[in-house]
C-alpha cells in the first residue's frame, strides 16, 4: 500500500512490464517501459483527456485517430504522407498564405462535379513558362467582366491599293506624321486561331494571307 500523498514508483534495472490477462489466463494487453522505448501491445490503444474523457489519440489495426482540436507538426519539413490524404478542408494559419506546390512534378486538381477557384477580395493570377490551355470538351468558355483586354496582340497595317499577299506589314514601322492617329482596330483571327489587330476601316481589313498569319 502507498499513502495518498506519495507517488508509486516501479523501478527495474532492465524494464518494467505490466500484463493484462483474461479469465483463461491468456495475455490480452502488455505495457513495457524500457530504457529505449515504451511499447504497448493491445487490440486498441487510447489516450483520453483528463476532463470529459474525450479520446485524443487512438490506434488499432485498421486506423489511427487523432481527436485533438488542432494537430500541429513543428518539423521544418512539415508532414510527409506516403500515399493519400483525405480531408474536406485545407486552411492556412491566420495571416498566412496557403501554397500548394509540386517541386519536381505537376500539380493536378480533379473533381467529377467541377473545380472552383475564387478570390473574393483580390486578384486571380495564373502564370506559366510555356503554353496556357483553357479547354472545355462539352461546354463553353465564358468570360464575364466589366472590361476584357487582350494585351500584346500583334498589329498589322492595311492598304487597299496593295495586293492581298503584301497588304499587311508589321506595326513596327512608324506612321506618317500627316496620317491621323489610329484609335480603333478590328480583331482578326488567323486560320490557325492566332489573334491580331488590323486598323479598322469602312469594311473588314482582315486577310488570311497576312504575314502575321503566315509566320505564326
TrEMBL record:
Cellular localisation: Cell membrane, Sarcolemma; Cytoplasm, Cytoskeleton
A GO biological process held by the record: cardiac muscle tissue development
Membrane topology: Single-pass type II membrane protein
Keyword set includes Cytoplasm: yes
Keywords, ordered alphabetically: Cell membrane, Cytoplasm, Cytoskeleton, Disulfide bond, Glycoprotein, Membrane, Signal-anchor, Transmembrane, Transmembrane helix
Keyword flag Cell membrane: yes
One of the record's GO cellular component terms: sarcoglycan complex
PANTHER family found in the cross-reference section: SARCOGLYCAN (PTHR12939), ZETA-SARCOGLYCAN (PTHR12939:SF5)
Family note: Belongs to the sarcoglycan beta/delta/gamma/zeta family.
Name of the featured protein: SGCZ protein
The species this protein was found in: Tyrannus savana
Taxonomy of the source species: Eukaryota, Metazoa, Chordata, Craniata, Vertebrata
Gene name tied to this protein: Sgcz
